[in-house]
Specification:
By secondary structure, the protein is an all-alpha fold. The chain is 77% helix and 1% strand. A hairpin with a 2-residue loop joins strand 1 and strand 2.
């Protein structure tokens, strides 16, 4: 069976979802282009900065589409291509897209506040504090893991170092060009993309080689600067330009798959239980960002909501970006299921190159049929992945700073911990550094998928309570929330049993903590919903 129909069907489903369900979501939230957004009402030139829709789309998509939507589907392919494809399409359109879109709208309707502050408004301060602790710890883990990942890529692919450094310089110039010199976006984009491709070529011709530890220190220095610098100088323009790398990779892959029509070698379904665990719930937390990711809500409510120039931009940026990430996940799945199962079992390991190697080789093969040399295609795909891993790294650092400052905020009192962005950033990086050099990040990593999806469940819970308080229908958020809580709590329960049997006390404590935080927040939200319903009955009577 050829794989071209998989990509064609996926595109049709995703486009139809954007046109029809996306329009329905926009109508439910009553998006109004005349209503001023926090980017305008709170404009400060640092975090609150109105961005043009294409620029913000590039920033948002680059921030959410890191390596995870590539890794997850390739790992999950062990269950067979049918369950993975179904979860990507159903998850991204009805759950993940709703989650991203809703968290963005909820944030702008609360003055650009984070989801933690939305939880405080509708569930209580203790709920917010629990949520912020959970969020900050998760972001510290993300920073540690991605710092190690980027440093490893820099060591294995020295060409990515030169390209990444040149990308940063190009982004600063691009940001100054459109914000200070008011150059037309189309012209600046055309020139910027040309220079971007030039950076890729220079990276291949002039690689920079250094040790792993050297790059760790450089990366921590870089993310500190990136997290405290105004978004228009580096974050916005760099993510916007980097998004073209992924767009080119994605477009070339889709065309290549249709032209080549590679044969699917995997069976539709393999078995319910594999080395990863049982299909339910492990499949749903393994695919992760390709279908739904709690990390996306941190970006939607952390940086994107503070840059959204018009409410109507929320549909393409919040919902459309998730659907495009779903398409990327489908491409990643195809690169895995079109190789022989025996080869897959060997290549998916770190010794065989891992999922990044599978994806790069697959994309290189697709692009080679379009006239690009195979090696150049492989290198280009690897460069795109490294660029987005770096984007996730510095975005997570800025979000970690937001969560840290927010935790120490209190009415009528401001402390250095809540108002000083340098202190919050430094503390976040120091704790991430401790994880990196202790090796703990690899030990905790198996929890990441479950913790990430649990975060999504909590965000859907917060939006459900908010909509209930507004007397608006919330079934389109409530039922996805129920499903995600079933998935994540089941996954955490299985991990608790696994770590208990293995006698792994540190992981057992972390897993139990995540489980308890989720249950406590559920009960607090339940009490809030009960009060809302009682108040509604009083008003009705």
């Amino acid at each position: 069976m050829g794989a071209s129909w998989l990509i064609i069907v996926s595109i049709v489903v995703l486009v139809a979802a954007y046109v029809f369900y996306g329009r329905n979501l926009a109508r439910r939230y009553g998006l109004d282009p005349e209503r001023a957004t926090p980017a305008h009402t709170k404009r400060d030139g640092v975090d609150y900065v109105p961005a043009r829709a294409p620029v913000l789309f590039g920033h948002h998509f680059a921030s959410i589409a890191g390596a995870a939507p590539i890794l997850g589907p390739i790992y999950a392919a062990v269950f067979g291509w049918v369950p993975v494809l179904l979860w990507i399409l159903i998850g991204s359109t009805l759950i993940g897209g709703v989650h991203d879109f809703s968290s963005l709208v909820a944030s702008i309707r609360h003055g650009g506040k984070s989801i933690g502050e939305v939880i405080e408004d509708h569930i209580g301060r203790s709920g917010k504090q629990l949520f912020l602790i959970f969020t900050w710890l998760l972001l510290v883990l993300v920073i540690a893991v991605f710092c190690k990942a980027v440093a490893s890529i820099f060591v294995k692919e020295p060409a990515t170092v030169t390209s990444s450094l040149l990308f940063i310089l190009l982004a600063v110039v691009f940001g100054a060009t459109i914000y200070r010199f008011k150059a037309p976006l189309w012209l600046a984009s055309l020139v910027g993309v040309a220079f971007l491709l030039g950076c890729v070529v220079l990276g291949i011709r002039f690689p920079i080689e250094q040790s792993y530890d050297f790059w760790i220190y450089v990366l921590f220095g870089y993310v500190f600067v990136a997290a405290v610098t105004p978004v228009w100088i580096l974050l916005q323009p760099r993510d916007y330009l980097n998004s073209f790398l992924l767009f080119f990779t994605l477009l070339g892959s889709v065309i290549g798959i249709v032209v080549v029509n590679p044969e699917i070698s995997f069976p539709p379904v393999t078995q319910f239980h594999t080395e990863l665990g049982y299909l339910f719930p492990i499949l749903f937390v393994t695919v992760a960002c390709g279908a739904i990711s709690g990390f996306h809500s941190l970006i939607s409510s952390g940086t994107t909501s503070k840059q959204l120039s018009s409410e109507t931009d929320a549909r393409p940026i919040g919902y459309g970006s998730m659907l495009l990430e779903g398409l990327l996940a489908v491409v990643a799945l195809i690169t895995a299921v079109t190789i022989l199962q025996g080869d897959y079992s060997r290549l998916v390991t770190s010794e065989g190159g891992g999922p990044i190697g599978i994806f790069s080789s697959g994309v290189g093969g697709f692009l080679s049929h379009l006239g690009l040399p195979y090696e150049a295609g492989v290198t280009f795909a690897a460069l795109a992945i490294s660029a987005f891993a770096l984007t996730t790294l510095d975005t997570a650092t800025r979000l970690g700073r937001f969560a840290f400052q927010e935790f120490f905020e209190s009415e009528g009192r401001q402390s250095i911990l809540s108002r000083n962005r340098y202190v919050g950033t430094l503390v976040t990086i120091v704790f991430a550094g401790l994880l990196v050099f202790s090796g703990t990040s690899e030990t905790i990593w198996p929890l990441f998928g479950s913790a990430n999806q649990l975060l999504a469940s909590l965000v859907l819970l917060a939006v459900t309570v908010w909509l209930a308080g507004l007397r608006k229908k919330n079934s389109f958020v409530k039922y996805p929330m129920y499903f995600m809580f079933c998935v994540t709590l089941t996954a955490l329960g299985s991990l608790i049993y696994k770590h208990l049997m293995a006698g792994n006390l540190p992981l057992l404590l972390v897993t139990v903590l995540l489980f308890v935080v989720a249950v406590v927040l559920v009960f607090q939200a339940r009490n809030s919903l009960k009060k809302i319903n009682e108040k509604a009955l009083e008003i009705g009577s």
